[in-house]
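If your schedule permits, I should be very grateful for your opinion on a structural question. I have a record of one protein: its chain in single-letter code and its fold written as C-alpha cells. Would you kindly read the sequence against the C-alpha cells and tell me how you understand this chain to fold? Thank you for your consideration; the sequence and its C-alpha cells are set out here.


***
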Amino acid sequence: MLEINVMALKVIVLGPPGAGKGTQAERLARECGIPKISTGEIIREAVQVGSELGRAAKATLEAGRLVGDDIMIGIVRERLARENARRGFVLDGFPRTLRQARALDGLLGDQDPLVVLVIEVPEDELVRRLQRRRICGACGQNAEAIDLSSNVTCRRCGGALVPRSDDSVEVLRARLRVYEQDTRPLVAYYRERASFRAIDGNRAPEKVHADLRAAIDSVLGGQLDETCRGMRAESRP
C-alpha cells in the first residue's frame, strides 16, 4: 500500500484528446507543488532508465502494440511510490481502462478522497482544436493550438511549427471513437463518487481552470488554497 501524507491532494484529470486536460493538469500541479504524472512521460522515463517494466514497455512499443494494463499499472505503481508523490499528484492519461482504475483504487486504499475531474468538450470543437495543433519540426516539442494566421515558431528552439502527422480529420475522429469506447466507461465508474466533478471545457482556458479549482475546492470543503500552501511549503528544501 502506498504511504501518502494525510494532506495529500490526489487528482485524476480525464477527457478526450483536445480537451486541454494536459495543460490544466500541468498548471494545477505547478500551483500546488506536486508532480503531474503523465503516462507518456513515465513510459519514456522507464524505457530510458531500463527498468524491467521499461524494457517490457519498449519491446511492446517496438512491436507496434499498445502498452497493456499489467505493464502500465506496474509503471504507475513505481512512480507513485516515489517520495515526491507523497504530498500528492495529478494523473494525466491514467487510468485509461476500468482495470487500471480498479488497480489504482487498490494502490491508494481508503486514505484521502481521489478527486476525479472530467473535462467535457463537444466533438466538433475537439476536432477544430486538434487541427490547430502543431509540433516543432526541429526539436519535436508539442505546441498548444495556435492562431494559424500568424507566423508562430517553437518557444524552445525557434524552429518552424508543422502539423502533426496524426491530426488529420479522419485520424482525429478515430481517436475520439477509441476514447468513447475505452475511456468513457471510466466516467460511469467514477460518477457516483462524492469526489467526482464534470467541467465544461468548451470555454477559455482561464475560465476552465477557475472552474477546475472550484470543483476541487468543493471536494476538499473549501481547503484547496490552504492545502496547496502546505504542500508547497513542504516541498521546499
Observations:
- The mean pLDDT is 84.
